[in-house]
Amino acid sequence: MKIKDIKVWSVDLGNTKPYTIAFKTVDEVKNAFVEITLDNGLTGIGAGNPSEYVVGETLDQCLDALQENNIEFLIGRDIREFNQLTFDVWKRFPENPSARAALDIALYDVFTKFLDVPLVKFLGQKIKKLPTSNTIGIKNVEETLKEAEDYIKRGFRVLKVKLGRDLMEDVERIMKLREKFGPNIVIRIDANQGYTVEQTIQFYGRTYDLDVELIEQPLPAKAISEMKSLPPEVREKVAADESLITPVDAIELLKPPKAAKIFNIKLMKCGGVSQALKIADIALHEDVDLFWGCNDESIVSITAALHTAFACTNTKYIDLDGSLDLARDVVKGGFILKDGYMSCSDKPGLGVERI
Length: 355
Prior knowledge:
38% of the residues lie in helices and 22% in strands. The model has no long low-confidence stretch (mean pLDDT 96). The protein has 2 domains: 2-116, Enolase-like, N-terminal domain (Enolase-like, domain 1, 2-Layer Sandwich); 121-354, Enolase-like C-terminal domain (TIM Barrel). It has 15 helices and 18 strands. By secondary structure, it is of the alpha/beta class.
């Protein structure tokens, strides 16, 4: 069963709710897409949306990597050589994680369609459903409360609040959220590398009684020694995000003392399902919880991340809201969302269909 054709294209999926985080404002969502066709007509789709600030890859570089002359090595290959194919993709594109992710996801999709099983079943499903957080960008207190109320009305009970510009305002926003909504919501925060060690400790202390679930990437990505210098009780709450790109990073973060008790895995950082599973395995052996995140992405790659997350016993948190505010997409189907909880469908592969 051989690969007959590979198509590559890009689309601006639009963003109905532009938002601001510590280092940028997001107002457009350009994704690269890959569709693999087998000689029996089966197709698999993958998607990539790089974060240049995090991995140093632009969308143009992603698309350049996916040019025909770079991916023709897959044409004529037998999909049953699946593990070798994903390995070859990893080796061919060392500097292009989102290009790798798009190809890797498409290979997983078409192979599990060939097997006639959902991707999560092929990987070994451990989890049936989890609540996803919905993200509130950097806003003033009034706007924060209004957006939180909108999400709660839509059935979401987990909020991720972007912080990292002004410590005192950050604390006030969390205080007001807890005052207004009480214990009925879960609050997690993401400082996007915006704090110093001292500010991280201050934030932890000032919000100790506000039941903040986790603190995502408070320090700069390369500040590993500084992360390890945080008090143990703070590191228990810290989720490494921008510091964690590859399995090698995971090993470095775990050298005593552990820099974080939680790993944030994104397919767009590590390069797809294959490498994500390697990071997850490393974390499992060191009793580290998993927190699955995303960029602003198509349903395609969000669904791939969800299937991968639900195949890992140490998955405790998901933040897979990256397709919820898109103006359009190239597929329908995929993940199931009900009352803020995400689950996988029982359709083969990712369970998505081209529109």
